[in-house]
Amino acid sequence: MGLIGLGALGLGACARSMPMPGETTSSAEGGPSSSASAATSASAAPASTAVAVVTTAAALAPATPPARWADAVRLERWDEAEAQLDALPEVDRQRPEMRYLRGRVALERGDATRAVELFTGLDKELPLLADDIVRRRAEAASVAGPFAEAAAFFGKSRSPADLYRAALALEKDGQLAPARSILDRALAAAARSRKKSDDALLRAARARIAEAQGLLPIATADLRWLAVEGAGLPEGEAGAAALGRLKQSLAPKDQLARALTLVRAGQAESAIPILDELEKKKTVPLLDVLHARAEAKLKARDYPEAEKAFRVLSTLPGPRKVEAMYQSANALARGGQADEAIKRWLDLASRYKKNSWAERSLYQAARWLLLRGRYDEAAPLYTRYLALFPKGVYREDAEYEQALAYLSAGQPKVAQKTLGKLAKAAKKPEEAQKLRELEGLAAFRAGNRDEAVRIWTEVARTFPLSFAALAARSRLAAAGAPLPPLIEPAAPRPAYPLDLDLPDPARLLVSIGLDAEAEGRLVPFEREAAARFAGREAEALCGMYGKLAHARRRYRVGVAQVGMPHLLRAPGEADRWAWECLYPRPYLDEVQKLEAEHEVPRGLVHSLMRQESAFDQEALSPVFAVGLLQLMPKTAEKAAAEVGMSFEPTRLKSPHVNLRLGSYYIGKLLKTFRKNPVLAVASYNAGPRAVGQWMRPGVDAEADLWVARIPYDETRNYVARVLGNLARYQWMEGGDAAVAPLVLDVPVDVEVPPDAY
């Protein structure tokens, strides 16, 4: 199917999305801002439809107990769902809601002809979902016909996704000129969103149609854009192949641009052959090619070759000579030769003084001395950095890391003073408590046990079940000091349950396993639902969304409506809803089954999910991490091979596929790191080989110190948040007894295998 087939994977999915009013992309405790923000709903009904009444309860009831087929639908196991639905008695299969569901399954499985048949006339029999049925029939018709009907339906829209479907239908109907005209409109509309993936899909279709019309200059222009700007996307690679087929080629400067786009898209390996060919032909400046190839080798994690490439560059004249010296040392450090890298950085810093790369070099030398456990050398080097660069880019990091060096170098009083100052200046309570816990450790090592116990007790009480509180409690236990309550009990308050019900369309969708679509139907109903429960609006909304297996919107409501005070005391019957809203457990049965299968602590998969995607199965990060557990496609492909599962990149957003591969992968990391959750969670974010670089026998590496020294801010905060999530999930399941204490011992002698991924 070529580029036509690719089209069904991109904007086609967007045609079923509806933005949520008032939605933001942030999540509690600094969740990912890259998560997709559209509800998975075809075309949500207006509020007046959302509360429509069905006259009989039977009209909303599922045909049979939904245990198997509805669960298959919720997890998007479409083949299984089809088989189970087709095995139902005829009388059940003919019910309107079951025909609708069977049509949805047919669409997901690519059987557009069957979907058109099932949806035809169904809008009259199932008026609750009439708008959605009409739309989905048009969606299926754009693939299988009648094409004119689909083109008329989608051609009225202003949405690039809808216009794409209209053009696809017109193309299949042989109306190439109108199809290309509609794609021109779609590209103009897509320009406002600035999503390269949308542009790529539309340009691929326009190039295909222009070629069919014999308009090769138009086709070639789009194909060149795809090959350069869309490099790394499926349409981009197909565009590059199409140029070859048409015996067209990219200009040398465009080939270089294509290679750099591939590097930025995380496909550095594919860029290297292009750069090798450019070097042979000598058609672009040699320095530009050599720099691009060195960067590609570094991004491809071929550290020995990257070091050689940057070292060669460092001998050549030019404005990037010093940068090449820095990067050659960087490649050495990442490749396991940190001691030699430190020497090179120090040499660079001495030779070039105030150069920005000299600043980076001096800071990196100090940081890697800290990571290598050479604390006596690291501390004075940080002093040198702070003296030379009093307003330097890394000043705050240098002060913090110097305190850690002093703490482990036998100068805890100096460390305590700095950590206390940093804690007072911290802008976020979470960050302040982590610094306070380390301040307590410095006091303890300075011989002031009473002060340490006071600080740790205060931290454990102030922000219960956070990483800092867990670390403080472990330190108190190790010191033989009394432990405060894990979390203060809730004030007794009677519970008055709310009489909540879903509007009819959402209730029907949930009954047949389409919880994600039900979520979209609830959004227009939010204001009305909240208004019915004055003073308890947040509880009402959280309870309403809690009836779904899908948790994306429930969590976002919790972030917007539930304040931090709810987390500082244990929930009672009257306010447990607040915890469940902020810490939902979607697909619980499936998750717990996978955790047991892969020996993952109960609650860890949801803890990762909360931090990775904010429970959004459509989430796609800037580096193309996908779905609930934000799996990189290459990682997912390797995991699929190891579990004996066929891998289809287009299915990676499916909860069934994403949860299965993500659970296996975190289980694999736990096995690699001797079941230590600190190391496994750090590896899930930064990669096991990076974590291997931060471990060294003989370093001062108890859990709180090891996490504090993680050189990436993102990973350091990620570990703390995920382990805090885990403690709260464990408490919700079993109270104090279920919360695993933080084990201070970190196995720093673990050997990470060379093929770890």
Q: What would you call the structural class?
A: mainly alpha
Describe the global form: flat
How many helices in DSSP terms? 43
Instruction: Summarize model confidence as the mean pLDDT.
Output: 90
End-to-end C-alpha gap:
33 Å
Low-confidence stretches: 1-65
As a whole number of angstroms, the C-alpha radius of gyration is 29 Å
How would you characterize the largest beta sheet?
2 strands, antiparallel
Proportion of residues in β-strands:
under 5%
| Strand line-up of the largest beta sheet | 1-2
Helix fraction by DSSP (H/I, runs of at least 4): 55-70%
Structural description of this entry:
By secondary structure, the chain is an all-alpha fold. It is built from 43 helices and two strands. A two-stranded antiparallel sheet has the order 1-2. Helix 7 (96-108) runs antiparallel to helix 8 (112-119) and helix 36 (588-597) runs parallel beside helix 39. It is flat, with a radius of gyration of 29 Å.
Write the layout of secondary structure elements.
Elements (H helix, E strand, L loop, with lengths): L1 H6 L3 H4 L3 E2 L18 E2 L7 H4 L18 H6 L3 H9 L3 H4 L2 H13 L3 H8 L2 H4 L4 H15 L2 H9 L4 H13 L3 H15 L5 H17 L3 H14 L4 H12 L6 H13 L3 H14 L4 H14 L3 H12 L6 H14 L3 H15 L3 H16 L3 H14 L6 H14 L3 H14 L3 H17 L3 H14 L4 H12 L25 H8 L3 H8 L3 H6 L5 H9 L6 H10 L14 H7 L5 H10 L6 H10 L19 H10 L12 H18 L4 H10 L1 H6 L9 H6 L4 H22 L23
Antiparallel strand pairs: 1-2
Helix pairs in contact: 5-7, 7-8, 8-10, 10-11, 10-12, 11-12, 12-13, 12-14, 13-14, 14-15, 15-16, 17-18, 17-19, 18-19, 19-20, 20-21, 21-22, 21-23, 22-23, 23-24, 23-25, 24-25, 25-26, 26-27, 27-28, 27-29, 28-29, 30-31, 33-34, 33-35, 36-39, 37-43, 38-39, 39-40, 40-43
